[in-house]
Amino acid sequence: MIEVKGVTKWYGTFRALDQISFSLDKGEVVGFLGPNGAGKTTTMRILTGFIPPSEGECTVAGHNVSAHSLLARQKMGYLPEATPLYGDMEVTDYLKYIGALRKLSGDLLKKRLKEVVAICGLGNAVGKKISTLSKGFRQRTGLAQALLHDPEVLILDEPTVGLDPNQIVEIRNLIRQIGKSKTILLSTHILSEVEQTCTRVIIISDGKIAGQGTPQELIHKTHGAPVYFVGIRGEENVIRDGLKTLPFYKDSNKISTVNGVIHFQIALDSKNNLSEEIFKLCVAQKWGLTELRREEATLEEVFKKLTQ
Questions:
Q1: What is the rounded CA–CA span in Å between residue 195 and residue 217?
Q2: Secondary structure letter of residue 122 according to DSSP
């Protein structure tokens, strides 16, 4: 649904994007991450036809954004970081105005108005001026205008910026619901939002793609396999030999011995959770297992490593 091929963007002598390429399939919700100035907003503006690329090409729903801009825009909805709302307009009047720009009218416009008000939870805002709405309801109104023409693709630039924790949860749930039927590219700085909302992540740094994949794939690729911490009561040499029989065994280190319990750090070269295998080994060997926990890197650590 979205394909970016070798896109470069120059602003004078400054190269904002450097040969970036990525794609989104139908029904994906993909997080687009990067530090300030990395090129996220520039990429989104190119995708939405606001500015052209210096090199490369972008297609949305099968339409080249540069060559067939209007056709591509008909297939997408866009929520920029600064939501374009008119404070002196009432919510429904604003959406009718957007509908007219999208060439919606008559029964179809009435139907879509009713649907987006329901989807975006705007029932309590109908009849009110946009200037009187909370930040959360203004964001909902912005999402409603992006959804009004029932696009196949949504591009959302920092949709939860400036919201309080409760409002963030509301918008996150809304995006998750919309993502069941739309392809969504979502830019954000809130990594927990990505982990809970997105199926895949693209990380950009200094205008280049630094990494892409599912959160777990990026964690495994960047930081390696998870580490297991165990506390076992038994003979150290016997335990060491026994741990080596674990599937995907890579290494183990003794951390400490406290009251006869030996604490080990175990590296197993698999992204799958092998806690059960460790437990079964302890049972089979009749070792006293006092502690078993699995730790892996977080998406935040991956982000830092790929963008520093």
A1: 12
A2: -
Residue 25: partners with Cβ closer than 8 Å, 6 or more residues away: 1, 183
The residue type found at 161 is V
CB neighbourhood size of 131 (10 A): 11
* Model confidence pTM above 0.70: yes
Nearest of 34, 29, 2, 30 to residue 17 by alpha carbon: 34
Strand order of the β-sheet with 183-187 is: 76-79, 153-157, 183-187, 29-33, 200-205, 208-213
Joined together, the tokens standing for residue 114 give: 């009713």
CA distance 196 to 173: 9
Give the pair of three-digit tokens for residue 293. 């926990």
Q: In Å, how far are 228, 240, 279, 296 from 262, measured between CA atoms?
A: 14, 10, 15, 21
Other beta carbons within 10 Å of 129: 15
Helical residues (DSSP H) of the chain, grouped into ranges: 40-47, 69-74, 91-101, 106-119, 135-147, 165-178, 191-197, 215-223, 236-243, 275-285, 299-307
Write down the pLDDT at residue 174: 85
- Taking the chain (308 residues) in runs of 10, the rounded mean pLDDT of each run is 96 96 94 92 94 96 94 94 89 96 94 93 92 91 94 91 81 85 89 86 96 88 84 94 94 92 92 91 95 88 88
Euclidean distance between the first and final Cα of the chain, in Å?
A: 31
Q: Work out the angle between the directed axes of helices 215-223 and 299-307 (0-180°, nearest 10).
A: 60
| Ramachandran assignment for 299, one of left (phi > 0), alpha (psi -120 to 50 degrees), beta (any other) | alpha
Query: Comparing C-alpha atoms, which of 87, 99, 170, 65 is closest to residue 131?
Result: 87
Residues 178/77, Cβ–Cβ less than 8 Å? no
248: nearest Cα among 281, 264, 271, 265: 271
